[in-house]
Amino acid sequence: MKFRASYSVLSTWASGDWERAIKQYFKLETFTSPAMEEGKRFHKLWADQITEFKESPTEIGAIKFINPIAEIKKTVSINDWLDLVGVIDCYDKPIIYEWKTGKSSSESYASSPQAGVYGVLATLAGLYVEKAEIHHYDQYLKKSDFSIVWVTDEMLKNSLNWVETLASEMHNYLNENKLYDKYYYVEGRACPTCKSRLVYGHKKDGEQFIKCEANIYNFDTQKAEGCPFVEWPK
Ligand SMILES: [Zn+2]
């Protein structure tokens, strides 16, 4: 079983709030707030506009794109125990774009490891990246600002190292405390098809389902392979 690292879980882990990171990782609780919900609404609106008009709204730069892809969800394999997952707000070769709402300036995001981690994700997913642009819109003050982060080889190396270090810490912690047994594996049941262990999965809306551990996602073909057993909630 592989650890699925995301920037948000790793940054929570890095902040020292282990309990929250674990709840986020296993989706034991949904962490949301009115500000986060509003951020999601803006992201959806902007993604639709970008797809339709190939241009970003004025709040986030009025950028004229060439061939933008909005909201790209990617999963890449880093090594035999680690996958990296994330959603890139927009990609238009050779730039990745991140949209931010709320009070924190684009600078505060630019100085976090996030742009580098998304650079790693995009690069390993085969998307060529030269820089990340973080566009921030403060919807309360109706003000915008943006920052540019150059994605160099050095930065990719450091970011990959950041991901691997934190992920290995957390993965070891989950193993040592038998938390995969508690929250990932379905207790006391085996797959009726192939006798492998059953695991919990989550749909996009957060609803839980059960699937066979031998159901593996193939990154090359972008398809699920192996045992097809799935049990949807009744
Ligand atoms: Zn099975």
Report on the architecture of this protein.
With 234 residues, the protein is of the alpha+beta class. It has 2 domains: 3-175, Lambda Exonuclease, Chain A; 185-231, no CATH class. It is 35% helix and 32% strand. The protein has 7 helices and 12 strands. It has helices at residues 7-14, 18-25, 34-53, 106-110, 114-124, 153-176, 179-183; strands spanning 3-6, 69-79, 82-92, 95-101, 131-138, 143-150, 185-190, 197-202, 208-212, 215-218, 223-226, 230-231. The strands form 3 sheets. Strands 1, 2, 3, 4, 5 and 6 form a 6-stranded mixed β-sheet that branches. Strands 7-8-9-12 form a 4-stranded antiparallel β-sheet. A two-stranded antiparallel ribbon has the order 10-11. The chain is globular.
Quick summary:
The chain has 234 residues and is an alpha+beta fold.
H/E element sequence? EHHHEEEHHEEHHEEEEEE
Tell me the overall shape.
globular
Structural category: alpha+beta
For this structure, what is the CATH class of the largest domain? Alpha Beta
User: What does the main sheet amount to?
Assistant: 6 strands, mixed
Q: Which ligands does the model contain, each kind named once? A: zinc ion
Number of E-type strands:
12
CATH architecture term of the largest domain: Alpha-Beta Complex
CATH topology of the largest domain: Lambda Exonuclease, Chain A
Average pLDDT confidence is: 93
Strand content: 25-35%
Domain module count: 2
Estimate percent helicity.
25-40%
Task: Return residue spans where pLDDT drops below 50 for at least 5 consecutive residues.
Answer: none
Distance between the termini: 26 Å
